[in-house]
Specification:
Strand order of the largest sheet: 2-9-6-12-4-3
Distance between the termini: 17 Å
Strand content: 25-35%
Radius of gyration: 17 Å
Mean pLDDT: 95
Number of helices: 6
Order of helices and strands: HEEHEHHEEEEHEEEEEEEHE
Structural class: alpha+beta
């Protein structure tokens, strides 16, 4: 067990935090290994900033995509389809929204972090309650595939110093739609998104409030 996880569980007694090695994770994704992932994580650790507030998201980072290992990762992890490699970072730790994509995404943890995950089939059944989500601790330098049926959003910081993570998705994901969609949850190309019913700001922007129940949050621990 990672040495940080017991302290994280103690700081968050109301939240069950699983490891990605738990059988429960198989519903949402899997741990992935590839020799090229280490170079990407090193790049993220050296080049991605952590702001003082909120979360920053960069869908496509030219420096990361220029790494020599990127074509091999496209081939091995995305089946040879064109991919984009970006990142997110920050000190967030609350459930504000969830999203899903057509096709798996690869998350590369450059720091310790926690993911709040759900199943898109619950959303389609209009029964998406926060108590049905599961929290998973992803240790620094581990990479995971998140299936296309998995609801997720930006990670929660496990440490007070914040988090950094790489995100690899089909190229074009998150780009503006060329015309308005009749589907209210489709917020950008290949990005379906719903907000927690208490997130007035997101709802005012048109994101449907379809996550019910308590607003989950994670209390980070000292670095």
């Amino acid at each position: 067990m990672n040495e940080l996880l017991p302290a994280l569980r103690e700081a968050n007694p109301g939240l069950v935090i699983f490891e990605t090695t738990s059988p429960h994770f198989a519903q949402y994704g899997r741990i992935v290994e590839h020799p090229g992932l280490a170079a990407v994580v090193d790049y993220l650790a050296q080049n991605v900033p952590i702001g003082h507030k909120g979360v920053e998201v960069v869908p496509s980072d030219q420096g990361a995509e220029a790494l020599d290992v990127f074509p091999a990762l496209e081939q091995a992890l995305m089946g040879g389809l064109p991919a984009q490699l970006g990142w997110c970072s920050g000190k967030g730790g609350a459930l504000t929204a969830l999203e899903y994509h057509m096709g798996s995404g690869i998350l590369l943890a450059a720091t310790d972090l926690v993911l709040l995950l759900g199943d898109v089939r619950a959303l389609h059944a209009s029964t998406l309650y926060s108590d049905n989500l599961r929290a998973f601790f992803v240790p620094a330098r581990q990479s995971v595939e998140l299936y296309g049926t998995t609801l997720y959003h930006t990670p929660c910081a496990a440490r007070k110093s914040g988090f950094k993570a790489g995100v690899m998705l089909p190229r074009g994901t998150g780009e503006p739609l060329e015309e308005a969609s009749e589907c209210p949850t489709l917020r950008a190309k290949n990005k379906w998104m719903v907000a927690h019913v208490d997130e007035d700001e997101l709802i005012s922007l048109g994101v449907p409030g379809l996550i019910f129940g308590r607003a989950l949050s994670l209390r980070p621990v000292d670095s």
